[in-house]
Amino acid sequence: MVKPLQGPNWVLLSLILLGVVAWLWLPVISLAPNRIVPGTPYTAFAVSEGGLFLALTSMLTMLMLGVAWLAWRATRKETWLALGTVVVLLALLPLWLAAAAAELAEPDLPQARITLGAAFWLLWFVLLLALIELRTRLGLSRPMGWLLLLPMMACWGLALWLWLEPLALLREYQARSEQFADALIIHLALVGAAVAASLILAIVGVLAMRRCSGLQRPGFAVLNFLQTIPSLALFGLLLAPLAWLGSQVAWLGALGVSGIGWAPAFLALLGYSLLPMVRNLHVALGAVDPAVIEAARGMGMSRRQVLLQARLPLALPVVVEGLRITTIQAIGLTAVAALIGAGGLGTFIFQGLGQAAMDMVLLGALPIIVLALVTDALFGTLSEWLRPGGEL
Fold this sequence. Notes:
Layout: H1 10-25, E1 29-32, E2 40-42, H2 51-73, H3 76-104, E3 113-116, H4 118-138, H5 142-148, H6 150-162, H7 168-175, H8 177-211, H9 216-228, H10 231-248, H11 250-254, H12 262-286, H13 290-298, H14 303-333, H15 346-355, H16 358-386
Antiparallel strand pairs: 1-2, 1-3
Helix pairs in contact: 1-2, 1-4, 2-3, 3-4, 3-6, 7-16, 8-12, 8-14, 9-12, 10-12, 12-14, 13-14, 14-16, 15-16
C-alpha cells in the first residue's frame, strides 16, 4: 500500500476545480469578423455540438476531473499520475484551440480573428500553477520543471505554425514582426545596461560603505528616496536637465542624450535598480561567518584576498538573488519607458490601449511576462546551485 504524502492536496484540488468552473461557464474563445467589430464569445462546449471536437472537449474535461480525484487521494503514485495528466492537459490546450479554430472558420470571412477568452487564460494559468505545485511536492529539480514544459511548447509551436493563422495575437505579430524584433532588442538592451551599471555602482558603493561606515546611512537614505519616486514622475524630473545637457554639451547631444528617449529611461532604471542591488550586496558581504574571515586572516590573506577568496564566494548566492530581483524589476519598469520615446515592448502596450486593441496589448505584455519568468528561473537555478551543497 502506497503511503500518502500529507493527505489530500488541497492546493491542487482548489486549482483544478477553479479551472473546471472557468472551462465550463466562462467564454474560452471569441470570433470576430475583423479587427474592429467585437467578437462573439463561445464557451468550450458551445463551439461545436458534435463530432471529434466534442469528444476532444469532453476528454479535456474528464482529464481535469481526473486530476481533481488524484489530488483528493494524494498518495505518491497518484501525485505522479496527476503530474503526468497536467503535462498532457497543457499539451492538449493548443491542439484544442487549433481544432476550435477549424470548427469556427468560415470561408466567406477570411479576415475573421479568434481571440482567447478569460477561461482559456485562467485555465492555462491554473494548470501551470498546478505543475509548479506538483513539482515542488515531489521534490523535482528546476531543470526537470523546464523539461515538463517541453511537450506544451512543442504543441504550441506546431499549432501556431500549421493551424492557428486566424489567431488575433498571431496576426498582430505578423503585421508588426520587424517592429517587434526592434522593440525586443531595445527592451533587452535597456535592461542589460541598467542592471550591469547598477551592479558596478553597487560594488563600488558597498565597498566604500564598508571602508567608511559613516557613508552607510546617507547612502541608503538617498537610495530609499529614489525608490519612492513614481516612475512617471522620475521621467518628468529628468526631462529638463537632460534636455539642457543635450543642447549644451556637444558630445552628449551626439550620443542622443535628450529629455526623451533612451537617456532618461536608462537613468531611471539605474536609479530604481540601485537599492535592491546595494542592499543585497551589503547584506551578503556582512552575513559571512566571522570565523571564516578570522581563519582567512590567520592564513595570512590580505584584505583584498579575504574579499575575493572568502567573502565574495560565500556571498555569491545572495548576490545572485539581488541580480534576480533587480533584473525582474527592470524588465517590468522598462515597459513604462515607452511613454517617453525610449521604445521597447511597452510601445505595443500603450498603442494597444490607445486603439482599444487588447491583442496588441498582449503582444507587448506576454513577452515581458515570459522574460520575467525565464529570468526568475535562470537566476533562481544559479543561486540554488551556488549555495553550499546546492544541486540543480
